Sequence to fold (116 residues):
Amino acid sequence: MALTRDFKETVKDRADRDPEFRNGLLAEALEAVVRGELEVAKILLRDYINATEGFESVGKAVEKSPKSLMRMLGQEGNPNAKNFFLVTQYLQEKAGLQFSVVPVKSRMAKKRELVH
Fold:
């Protein structure tokens, strides 16, 4: 289902005035990648790019056409890892953020500890 223009504008307006919201969008997208939820990550990254830099700027920065990036992050998109991480690295740098993966015990691991 395509997002309405009103929704996109609402997200952009909120991202423009609320750095915590803007950073939260990017953080959620990267957390989705780590969880293996690529479809969710692509949606969130599209929203983030539309609300912040725009596909023209991101494309220029990572030396990819904006249309290619839009397809890559589209519903049927299948980004290769190199391009996907070029985009996410650029977005982190542009936002002045650096995310890292911190290991957390899964529920399954915790249950196994209780059994033993």
The helical segments are 5-17, 19-34, 38-51, 55-62, 66-72, 81-95, 107-115. Residues 5-115 form one domain. The longest helix spans residues 19-34.
